[in-house]
Write a structure and sequence with these properties.
Strand order of the largest sheet: 2-1-3-6-12-13
Oligomer: single chain
Order of helices and strands: HEHEHEEEHEEHEEHEEEE
Bound molecules: ribulose-5-phosphate
CATH architecture of the largest domain: 3-Layer(aba) Sandwich
Distance between the termini: 26 Å
Shape: globular
CATH topology of the largest domain: Rossmann fold
Structural class: alpha/beta
């Protein structure tokens, strides 16, 4: 199986957890997009779902597929969210936000009874951090927040390059929520729990891409098939 086939296989397996009548959170990224395509086909075949997308991109995809959509204002509690990840470890600590949607992804996942991660095997790592950790920050006081991110990370043993995410033309990338992202190359992140907590002490940090204790199930598709990891 190549990587795209692995993403599709993980997305397909996630349908085992979807029941008629569910309120469903839809993730962001290429693996989540494979899932949204499958959901779209199932809805066309008569499956009854009400979905909340985690980004404008997923909203557009789901709308085009005719998937019934709602918001957390109308439907504040969801049954299940299915989303991808940039990295996951054996404890199902995740790095998310490669696609810039980490804040909405976390809000939607934590509004759900259950979050299932779908991923190809390359995302399953022993230690987090080879993928630069996205940290979403308010635009106001950006340099001050940048310095605090570096010092707080250092206080829990994480050092490395911290870069403001830019678009291809060199202007800062802006999230759906109107914030900046710092991409932090902190490999190896020995203590993801301590690092996530340290970010929460910084007022300018909106959220970090460390998802701790949120997903309890991961569906990982590799060369040799699909396995389900639970914690
Ligand atoms: C977007 C995310 C994605 O889930 C993550 O970047 C994985 O994307 P892909 O499935 O394309 O590798 O967190 O913010």
């Amino acid at each position: 199986m190549n990587i795209d086939a692995q993403k599709h296989a993980a997305a397909l397996k996630a349908m085992d957890y979807v029941r008629d009548g569910m309120k469903l959170g839809l993730g962001t990224g290429s693996t989540a997009a494979a899932f949204v395509d499958i959901v779209g086909a199932a809805v066309k075949d008569g499956l009854n779902l009400l979905c909340v997308p985690t980004s404008e991109a997923t909203h557009a995809q789901a709308k085009a597929l005719g998937i019934p959509l709602t918001t957390l204002e109308e439907t504040p509690h969801l049954d299940l969210t299915v989303d991808g990840a940039d990295e996951l470890d054996d404890n199902l600590c995740l790095i998310k936000g490669g696609g810039g949607a980490l804040l909405r992804e976390m809000i939607v996942a934590t509004a759900s009874d259950q979050m299932i991660v779908i991923a190809d095997a390359s995302k399953h790592v022993e230690k987090l951090g080879k993928f630069p950790l996205p940290v979403e920050i308010d635009m106001f006081g950006m340099k001050s927040t940048y310095d605090k991110v570096i010092s707080q990370a250092k206080s829990v043993g994480c050092t490395g390059e911290v870069k403001l995410r830019e678009k291809s033309g060199g202007t800062p990338y802006i999230t759906d929520g109107g914030n900046y992202i710092l991409d932090c190359s902190f490999y190896p992140i020995e203590d993801p729990v301590a690092l996530a907590k340290s970010f929460h002490t910084i007022p300018g940090v909106v959220e970090s891409g460390l998802f701790i204790n949120i997903a309890k199930t991961a569906i990982i598709a590799g060369e040799d098939g699909v396995k389900v990891l639970t914690v």
